[in-house]
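Protein folds are increasingly written down as discrete tokens. With that in mind, we are printing a sequence and the tokens encoding its fold.
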Amino acid sequence: MTQKPNYSIAGKQSIAQTPDLRVTLMTLDPGQEIPWHTHTKVTDTTFCLKGRAEVSLLKPDETVVLNPGDWRRVEVGRPHRVRCLGQDQCQTLLVQGVGEYDFVAG
């Protein structure tokens, strides 16, 4: 079931979008997060550009801290969230694809 994402972050700018690929620049203030969710058709690849970001995953449980230059891929169907760590903003480049985008909260 595809849902509209229901969260607020400091900034979200579309860089490129096709039916099978999305590239988005995400800016999160300290403490902000993209809440737990999954995708049924696309992988997420998060590249940290600025600050520190945390990618938390389930099944199995895993937490990865991203510093500038680091990245993490999240496979289709794996629950995950991304949040800003520390006292400064973080900025990530999110690449989603290849496939039709969906967001399943939970």
